[in-house]
Write a structure and sequence with these properties.
Thrombin, subunit H, 5% helix, mainly beta, 26% strand, 25 strands, six-stranded antiparallel beta barrel
């Protein structure tokens, strides 16, 4: 993911601000090429790009990455910790070409990530069996040595290509599962239902695992002009990098970066369209967690004209936003409870002007909330914690063992985290009850004229809006559509465009 720039919040009218023209959504993943040791310098440019950064035929190129705000740099944004449990996904495309994403270790065998990192092939196509597409995760702060060994082997150290190598914190995947609803036409592979689980063929012993929050965050009681919702989050991932001034201009270097932000909204893409443009042609009503990248110069003559402070908060000292290669990475809520918890999986980013650089000031990122898909995640978990029932029995007696709840599963009870799962089904799948009551889901005749944002966007959604009323529509809006700017199916990073 990329780190976003820090900014202070000022009234919208105080800036010479262009009106948003359209929402351009893209996934944050993408392909790169790797050369064996001793070969020419490693190429980290996305492969197959047509002019304008879009693949022929209108498909997207997704690449994970983090962009940081000045005075921070891609170097200062590097994660100072080597192994944290956040890893980089690699899919071998042949010839040294890789599909890249970010994922989070939940237990020694399970990694959670985004469906669009892999949903260009059937789930059965991946694994360690002959003829399958090789896939692996590297958990080092710098995965370049590990991925070279994985692709080409290393005679000096005895490493065999395409094998798990715990010494490199590098592990093969032997099976995957992803939500096929991500493939529905309206979802474009990443906008909704973008959740997947990968199973490692070798337990990742000694690598930290992360807790997952299966409860929706409560709506904030108020919105603070400086801290917005008050929910402080950490973003992290591998891939492209840069600063908020120019976006994700730095190539993928296989190193993990970290930034901070405030959670700006729990809302749908249609909610954002309705707020910005007054209507929406899309029915993308699933709630998403969203963040934006604030310009610390907001309110001054030098501020970015693209930063209209969609979510009301000020820039943090180490604020960042995601970019190509960060897809699938965690949204970490780190200051609300007694321990940090992962609340979402990164799908993509959105920019609102054609001239606005990806992952620059004023762009946003969106994440799939885990609470919507908790039951799918639990059902896909390949790892079991067990304990013996009371009394004597043979070790081989299967009836004497009982399954325990995975300690990574967390819910909110009386304002605190407890190990548990919700008592109601997740609502992120189409066969469930409607997950939002957004303006977009109501008949046009029922929509009221909006001069100020609603107190609540959806039944379970909330957001911090930085402006008293939506920006006036541009003189000629034409068709507003989410334009792909990322690499589909290859998790590499988010471009600036809403949820993927």
């Amino acid at each position: 993911m990329r780190c976003a720039l820090l900014t202070s919040v000022v009234p919208f009218a105080a800036q010479a601000q262009d009106r948003p023209v359209r929402s351009i959504d893209a996934p944050h993943a993408g392909p790169v090429s790797v050369a064996p040791p001793g070969a020419a310098s490693v190429s980290i440019a996305p492969a197959g790009l047509a002019p304008g950064g879009v693949l022929p035929g209108g498909s997207s190129i997704h690449e994970p990455q983090v962009v940081i705000n000045p005075p921070g740099t891609p170097t200062t944004a590097l994660d100072p910790n080597d192994i944290t449990g956040v890893g980089q996904m690699f899919i071998s495309q042949g010839g040294g070409s890789l599909g890249l994403c970010t994922g989070t270790l939940v237990n020694p065998r399970m990694v959670i990530l985004a469906a669009h990192c892999m949903n260009t092939r059937p789930a059965s196509a991946y694994g360690t069996e002959a003829g399958n597409t090789p896939m692996a995760f590297g958990f080092k702060g710098n995965n370049l040595p590990g991925v070279r060994d994985w692709l080409f082997g290393n005679a000096a150290t005895g490493v065999v290509a395409f094998r798990s190598t715990p010494a490199n914190a590098f592990y093969n995947v032997n099976q995957v599962s992803y939500l096929t609803d991500s493939l529905k036409t309206e979802n474009r592979g990443f906008l909704q239902s973008d959740v997947a689980v990968a199973t490692l063929d070798t337990p990742a012993v000694g690598i930290p695992a992360w807790a997952l929050l299966f409860s929706a965050l409560p709506a904030p009681s108020s919105i603070n002009p400086s801290t917005g919702t008050g929910y402080h989050v950490t973003i992290t991932g591998y891939g492209r990098n840069g600063t908020g001034l120019n976006g994700d201009t730095g190539g993928i270097d296989y190193r993990r970066r970290v930034a901070e932000n405030y959670l700006g909204a729990l809302a749908s893409l249609s909610d954002v369209d309705m707020f910005l443009y007054g209507d929406t042609s899309r029915t993308l009503n699933q709630n998403l967690y969203m963040t934006d990248l604030d310009d610390p110069r907001r309110g001054t003559a030098s501020a970015s004209r693209f930063d209209f402070n969609l979510f009301k908060d000020n820039a943090l000292p180490n604020e960042g936003i995601t970019a190509g290669g960060d897809s699938g990475g965690p949204l970490i809520l780190d200051r609300t409870f007694s321990k940090p918890v992962v609340i979402g999986v990164l799908s993509g980013g959105t920019r609102y002007y054609a001239a606005q650089p990806s992952s620059s000031f004023g762009t946003t990122s969106f994440y799939q909330p885990l609470y919507l898909y908790w039951d799918y995640i639990v059902a896909s978990n390949p790892y079991r914690y067990v304990s013996a029932k009371a009394g004597d029995a043979k070790w081989s007696d299967a009836t004497h063992w009982q399954t325990e709840l995975d300690p990574s599963y967390q819910i909110i009870q009386d304002g605190k985290l407890v190990n548990g799962v919700p008592t109601t089904a997740g609502q992120g799948r189409p066969d469930r009850a409607a997950i939002s009551d957004s303006y977009a889901s109501k008949p046009r005749a029922a929509r009221s004229a909006r001069t100020s944002p609603p107190a609540s966007i959806t039944r379970m959604a909330w957001r911090s809006i930085a402006i008293r009323s939506p920006p006036a529509p541009p003189p000629s809006r034409g068709r507003r559509r989410r334009l792909p700017t990322g690499c589909r199916g290859r998790a590499t990073s988010f471009r600036t465009t809403p949820i993927r």
